[in-house]
Fold each of these.
Amino acid sequence: MSVHPRAREYTESLLPGVIPQEAELTAGTRIEPGRSYGFFTDTTLCIGCKACEVACKEWNELPAEEFKLTGDSYDNTGALSATTWRHVSFIEKLKDANGDRATELAPFQSNWLMMSDVCKHCSPAPCLESCPTGALFRTEFDTVVVQQDICNGCGYCVPACPFGVVEVNVPDGKAHKCTLCYDRLKGGLEPACAKACPTDSIQFGEISALHDRARKRVECLHAQGRSDAYLYGARDTLGATNGINRLNAFFLLTDRPEVYNLPPQPSLPSRRVLPGLLSGLATMAAIAITAIVALAGE
Amino acid sequence: MVSPNGERAPYGRQDTSADQSAVDSSHSNYRGETYYGRPVLKPSPYGQLIASYLFVGGIAGASQIIATVADWTGDRRNRFITRAGRYLSLAGILASPLFLIADLRTPERWYNMLRIFRRTSPMSIGSWTLSAFGGLSGITAMLQFLADRRRRPVYRRVARAFALPATGAGAIVATYTGTLLGSTSTPLWARASRLLPALFGISAAATSTAALTLAAHASGASRITARRLERLAAMIAGIEFLASAALDRHWERGHLAAPLKQPPTATAYRAGYKTLGIAVPMLVHGVSVATGRRSRRASICAAAATLIGGYFLRSVIIHAGRDSARRPEDYFQVTEAD
């Protein structure tokens, strides 16, 4: 097998055909431990091809799920699950703001919303904070990963997630979710979905760079008259609220979050731990006093 | 939707600035849109095994508290309560891990629960507290056993020393499960993150007293012991009535009570918990106080009803929570889950 001409430019390659930092070529960013990486998903660029779903399934060797037609536009995947880590949502906007059928095409996407949903790799992450075994941890790339050799399937991360991402796989008995292609990141490759996306709707990079790019994109859209474009999950925007400081996988949306099946103001569940424990202890103190009254005297 | 002339939509801003430092407060514009009615959240995978653990663990924790209080009164006639309470507590804490480990979806790795301590996770807090409580409860019960056999005061004094931390751990064991459910995103539970631990603790005390009452009648304890337990049961029944009503009202005001109104959960809640668990004991105790007559049979019925009702409460909360997580309309209206 001959060596690819681009690979020849990297004389420090140990093996022929391996590019040490392929992400620099494909995503414009080096992948180095200690930096925060994530996704910026610009839904105005999504064409609904589902290459991200396929690439994710192929790279992570995830099984196919039940083949069915849901009747929900082109979304036959339905939702994220233990074996589906990318899910493209389709919303057909057949009615305009007044509830009448639209009579003219909107400038973008022809009255059609498409979004590739994924684990948000929140910072701080509710799933990580709830995990009692330490299976869920934060990697050197600031992503959240479930260690499959530690998880005992307690399932507490499942209701903790405010976005309904992580799930325990029934045959295997452990929790699974998007790893942001941790194995690829370690090899200097960008995640499979970002690489496969033909329109660069899914952009991989360092969070600060992505955020700058996203803000400029929103300004550009506003200037073009698309005033309903906004960021979801960036710091101090919807989706990053009530203790969840930011989502490492954040989005540019053009309609209410609920329309995309996203919560507008999710909250960090661990903020309810201390008040709950104190409430419980106060209650048992009151019970103890009641018992003293009941058991003393005749 | 936006028209070509840039008409303002609910989200996004008219000016070209992309700055969204203020969280959009237009939540009042929400007109009930969902994504094809699909759930946003995933329900917890918990079922009857966890409901059984909640029931048994609650009795274990509350029994230790009642036993210690009975011990502190220094009254000889409360010794049965101390003895039975400590043994009941040990039985409960021995049974609890069996339910928990059976519920794990990879049970052979149960010991990973003690791999780390994470203070943001009520399940981690609970795993460690359960372990500590098991040890302390076991030592206390063993000392109680020695005190019963050897009849020397030193055993009772040492038992009292160990019972103190055991009681503290027991208070956590009886209530941390409410915090565990509340520290999730499930709307029904998250909204009740402070009331659920309280109700679980009160129900634990009620079921524990009921179990002690049955033990008292079964082992032929003195009438005074039975009367005191009945007084405790009556007081706790009243408190539980108020706490349960407060929780119901809290859920109604948050528009989250729908899962509790759908059969079969509604039947289990109203007939199983509200009627059997609260109304029947209150009625029996009320009649007893009003007429001044104490019937042994009525006392046993009230205790049994309380136990059944307590189990129904745990079951209903678990199943209603799972339903709640599947309702996108419930979740979307919880902006700041309490």
Amino acid sequence: MATTTTVLESMAKPAVATAFSQDVAADDATAFAEIAARYRPQIFRFLLASLRDPDAAETLTQDCLLKAHRNWASFRGESSVMTWLLRIAINLQKDHWRSRRLQFWKLTNSNSVDAEDASQWLPSGESSPETQVVAKDQVRQVWKAVKGLSERQRTVFMLRHVEEMEIHEIANTIGLSEGTVKAHLSRAMVRVRAELGGRR
Amino acid sequence: MNFDEQNREIEDLEMESALRNFRASVHSWSEYEFSKTRTVKRSRWAAMWVVFAKPAMGWALGCVLMVSSVGIPVTVHHQRQLIAERNAQLLRQQRLAKQAAEQQAALAMTDDELLSHVDSDIAQAAPDAMQPLASLMGESSTR
């Protein structure tokens, strides 16, 4: 794991990108396997939250890692690995939605989980049953609001509030300016707030 | 702190709590789904497609491409040859027809025309050197 950390640190710094590529060339496959194992849960979580379909999320996670593996040699370490992987995942997710829209006439098997069911998931803490009920209700309302967001707003919202990424990281991942990201996030938050019954 | 500010603060806290619960819920759900063993479902037709139909389609497409890449130029060349042959035959026929028409025209000459043609051929003045002989012939005939 120490090797991976060194590799990842060097990835984040473009100045040492050359040294990094030499290191990676020495043991490319092992390095990528470690990175895949490390970031796979996070990619899966982002895709699951975006699609609400565990099977599709799993498939797209595999596709994402496959694509990353194919382009591993061309990765220059200009951004962090996670940003790079999430960028691939976002593109795959876009393609997924596009193909779903094109196949609207086809009877496709969608395993998309309803917002109601998705809100049943809460960490089993020591909180009281009353608190649990309130929390579930809040989660259900957030899901309901998320459902009404545009694709881009949803992506920004998920990256900010599920993956806890900074605005500049989101902007770098999606390829938008920070101002645009803030605007999308603000619109998403207005919607969530409205759903939660707050001020409009 | 007035009532509005207090109200806003409560809403912000609620919002924060809702987002925190939402994040925890997604993380929890994701962890469960991620650790779950998943079987790959594939229909019998899909399996058959991969094993038989897909390679067969590939071969068929390859054959079609090969046949069309060879067959089309050959057909085009053959067509051109046929057209050239047909044109040559037409020219030959036209030439023969023209010759026949000339022959026909020659045969169609009337007897009078032929005689006048012959007369004109033989009725020519005797050359000066033959003139004494011609006069002798004229005299002998008068005698």
